[in-house]
Structures are given as C-alpha cells and as structure tokens.
Design brief:
Layout (H helix, E strand, L loop, with lengths): L1 H9 L10 H4 L2 H9 L4 H22 L2 H6 L5 H29 L5 H17 L26 H25 L4 H28 L3 E10 L4 H4 L2 H15 L10 E3 L15 H14 L3 E10 L5 E11 L2 E8 L36 E3 L2 E7 L6 H10 L3 E6 L15 H16 L2 E6 L5 E3 L5 E2 L8 E9 L5 H5 L2 H27 L1 H5 L1
Parallel strand pairs: 1-2, 2-3, 7-8, 8-9
Antiparallel strand pairs: 1-12, 3-4, 4-5, 6-7, 9-10, 10-11
Helix pairs in contact: 1-3, 1-4, 3-8, 4-6, 6-7, 7-8, 7-16, 8-9, 8-14, 8-16, 13-14
Length: 517
C-alpha cells in the first residue's frame, strides 16, 4: 500500500495533470499506517513502510536529476542518491510522526495526516545550506486547474498542500467509518464541503478578479542544447546565430520589453574582455528600440578565491548596459553550490559548484511598470515571488535554461520540463500577478493573475512569443502575511513529536513490568 500511494501521488503532477490522484493518493498509505499495531514494533514498521513510500514517490518525480545531469558529470549519480536518501529519511520521520499522532495522541486521521505531510514539505524547503529542495510540493499538483486552487492567494501553495492532505485524511476516515448510516452520512457531508467550498470560491474569484494590461513583452527561446552551451566558443556562435534569426521577428517599437533566458550570454558583460558579445546584445536592443532582460554571469572582486561569480540577470538598453543586476539567491544544490563545502574548492570547475549567493530584490522599471526577476529554480521558492511583490513588482519574469532537463528526442525528455513551469502558476495565483517566462529550450509562456497559461512555445524549437502581460492591483493575504499554514503545520508537528515522546516516557515509567525490567 505504501508503493500504491507513491505511484498514485507521482501521477498527480505535470505533465499528466491528473485531477483525482491528489485527493486520494495518500489514502492507501494512511490506511496501512492506521492498521499497524500501536507499539514500538508498529512504529518501526511505519518508518520502514514510509522509507519505501519515499523511495517510490520521490524516485519517480525526481528521477530526472539523474537522467538530466548524468550526460554532463558522473557526480549526478551521487547527487541523485544523496537527494533521494535525504527525502527517504524525511519520509520515515513522517511515518513515525503519523503513527505516534494516531496511537499515542489518539488524533483522527484528518488531523494527523495534513499536519505531518505539510510539515514534511515545509521541512525539505527549509533544510540548511543549499540542500533545501522545495520543488514540486503537493499543492502544485493542481496547476492544470488554476481556478480550482485560487484560494492559494489566501493560504499559499503549502496551504493547498494542507487542504489536499486533509481531503485524503477525510477520505481514509470515510473508508474506516463505523457507527451507523447517520455517522457515515455526516462524515461524507463534511468531506464534500471541504472539497467543494474552496474550489467554488476559487472559480468565483477567477470570474471577479479585476486585472489590467501593463504592456507587451516578447519572450525569446534560442534553443541551444546544454552540451553546446558549455563550450564557450560553440555556445556563443550558436546563440548569436539563433538570435540573428529570431530578433528580426520583433518589430521595432512593437513591445515594451524583450526577455531572454538564463545564461543566454555565458560571459561577464561587466568586464571589458567580454565587450564583443556584450556589444552584440546592445545591437539587438538598438534594433528593437527597447530594453532587453538577459541572463549572464555577474562578477565581484574579493573572496578567498580572488573573485566571486554569480548567476545574474542584466538589463541592456540601446545606450548600453544599465546599472541593474540581480544575482540569483536560491541556488541549485550541487550544480551551482555544493552544500557545506567552501565554494573556492570548486573555483577551477567551469560553471559548477562555486556560485555566490545574491543579495537584495531589485526591480526593473519600464514605462511605469515594475518587473521582478526569478532565475530558474527560484520559481519553486514562494518567498522570492512574494518578496518581489512586496517590493512593488507588477509582473514576474522567470528566466531559465531548462536545457539541463532533457534533449530533443522524445526518449531523452524528462518530466522536469513540465514540472518546472508549474511552479510559476502557483506564484501567479499566490500574488495575483502576471508572469512572462523565457526558457532556452522551452517551455516559454505567459501566465495571467488567475494562473492561466497562454501563448506557450513548443519544446526544443527556436521561437519568439509576443503577448500582452496583465496584473492585478490586489495585494493578497498570502503576500502580506506569508506561509502561515506551512509555518503552523511545522510548529504543530513539532508539538506532536514532543507530546508523543513525553506521553511515551510517562507511560513507560508507570508500567510496573517496565520498572521491573
């Protein structure tokens, strides 16, 4: 049954966008946990079963870490095994917590499950160093139906996770319900209300939310394979050859802003020795007559290695590079920053493991519209988009490479190509703001403040998409107050653990057989 739950939950996520599994995927697991003995042997079984569940669930949804990166380094094997091992151990702790909550604290399933599961997601998003991994929480499983999860503007993506786990707990309770037809009917009515009312509010909100146009944006998709990008000469030649074909499709003066992907210019535009590629970017800006947001490498003197490099976003205008620079703050574990180890140890490895952590949340101002940039993996962190909104951003720009996640042949594509943009749907709903996403190999797209995706590109095709971006003037409850549900679940789970340990010790001390032993 833990294996069944692992498979069902994995089917919930993009690209499948299955509607039913998120509401029932945890049911087999918790029914199995509920049936275990309430003693130490039962707790051991719970931990072993949840280890197996974690191996199946996280192994399926994160298999791409191995498949995508092993093309470039055999270290991908260790990175995948380390990630899976950590997540499996956290799953075991989840099983221990639920078992104690059910048997020691005598809590109902519909309380124990959502608190423990949400705390699990909160914990993996708040691990130390760069091993934090918030990617693909259960709340993002319904991004294919954004109107149904519109209440994320109140409780955030992790609140949607709590709601889905609550429904799973109520379904499991309904399966176990005894005590007559009336008790079963009341339980079924409560379940129906918990499912229907939040979704009905989301549909109503989608129809009444006032939005406004703030400009026209072009997103550029050069489609340069990663093995070419990592070769500087070949990467630059291929990038500019693609841009020379794509940029003339943007009629001068027809847009307010052009957005290019992460690391489209794999150079240091602030340094004079990279003047040639930087000048070519300036020429594109002159041709279209508007600013270009582009991903490149930032550089700072100092540090134990003599300098620090950053994964950065810049703004190029017809007059040249502006003073804007945003340095990525949430780095990809192992690829951009090896956890716990000094970055200077990896300074000799090109584009790997030694990136600096950025500071601040600068905005791009164009015609009285403020744009905030999230680079690649930062889309999975709700706090980044929320902070940009609080700083005054009207629109979120997500620049990303995504060539890491697969190659053009169908057999070489991974589910991460669809998982990654799903995060931006939740960021749009949580903060009720529009999104423009430029991805090197796709999917480039636009998202409105309701969370609806429009005008997406196809994967692995060089393309340009131009469309109107929209925003709302709403500062949502979630934007103002943050992840109250996730934080509350983490605190509640900690209290569960402390209360369980205290009660277990007290029972042990009062047991005369235990005392004799």
């Amino acid at each position: 049954m833990p294996v069944v739950s692992g498979v069902l939950l994995a089917l919930s996520f993009p690209p499948l966008h299955s509607l039913v599994p998120p509401f029932v995927g945890l049911v087999p697991l918790v029914l199995w946990l509920r049936a275990l003995a309430g003693d130490a042997e039962g707790r051991g079984a719970a931990m072993r079963g949840c280890l197996l569940f974690g191996a199946v669930y996280f192994g399926i949804i994160f298999y791409w870490i191995l498949i995508a990166l092993v093309w470039f380094t055999k270290l991908a094997i260790l990175a995948f095994l380390a990630t899976l091992g950590i997540l499996m151990m956290m799953s075991a702790v989840f099983g221990w917590t639920v078992h104690h909550a059910l048997n020691t604290l005598r809590l109902p399933l519909w309380v124990a499950l959502p608190v423990a599961w949400t705390a699990l997601e909160w914990s993996r998003a708040h691990l130390p160093s760069t091993i934090a991994f918030p990617w693909l929480g259960l709340g993002s499983s319904l991004t294919g139906y954004p109107e149904l999860v519109g209440f994320a503007e109140i409780i955030g993506s992790r609140g949607v996770t709590f709601w889905l786990a609550l429904v799973n707990g109520l379904v499991a309770g309904l399966v176990l319900k005894v005590g007559g037809r009336r008790a079963w009917a009341l339980h079924a009515a409560a379940l129906a209300a918990v499912v229907a009312l939040p979704m009905a509010w989301g549909v109503w909100r989608a129809g009444t939310l006032e939005t406004r146009e703030v400009g026209r944006v072009a997103v550029v998709q050069p489609n340069i394979p990663e093995h070419i990008k990592l070769d500087y000469e070949a990467g630059m030649d291929s990038t500019f050859a693609s841009l020379d074909r794509l940029m003339p499709r943007i009629e001068p003066g027809s847009v307010d802003l052009v957005v290019m992907p992460e690391a489209v210019l794999l150079a240091y535009p602030e340094l004079p020795q990279y003047a040639s590629p930087t000048n070519r970017m300036q020429a594109y800006s002159r041709e279209v007559g508007v600013p270009i947001v582009l991903g490149s490498l930032g550089y700072e003197e100092g540090g134990r290695g003599g300098y620090t490099r950053f994964n950065s976003a810049f703004v190029m205008e017809p007059q040249g590079l502006t003073g804007y620079r945003y340095d990525k703050r949430y780095l990809v574990p192992f690829v951009e920053r090896v956890p716990f180890l000094p970055p200077e140890w990896f300074g000799g490895l090109q584009y790997f493991g030694a990136f600096g952590v950025g500071q601040g949340w600068p905005l791009i101002e164009v015609d009285e519209t403020a744009y905030g940039v999230l680079i690649c993996y930062e889309s999975s962190y709700p706090q980044g988009a929320r902070q940009l909104r609080l700083e005054g951003a009207d629109i979120l720009l997500n620049i990303t490479n995504d060539a890491w996640y697969g190659r053009e042949p169908l057999y070489a594509r991974t589910t991460a190509l669809w998982q990654h943009p799903a995060h931006m749907v939740m960021r749009a709903i949580e903060n009720r703001m529009g999104v423009a996403r430029a991805a090197n190999t796709g999917i480039s797209l636009f998202i409105d403040p309701v969370g609806r995706v429009y005008n997406p590109t196809s994967l692995f095709e060089a393309d340009v998409r131009i469309d109107v971006v929209r925003t709302s003037d709403v500062i949502t409850f979630y934007t103002r107050y943050g992840d109250l549900v996730g934080n509350g679940a983490a605190i509640a789970a900690l209290l569960f653990v402390l209360a369980s340990v205290h009660r277990s010790r007290r029972s042990h001390s009062l047991d005369p057989l235990a005392a004799d032993v």
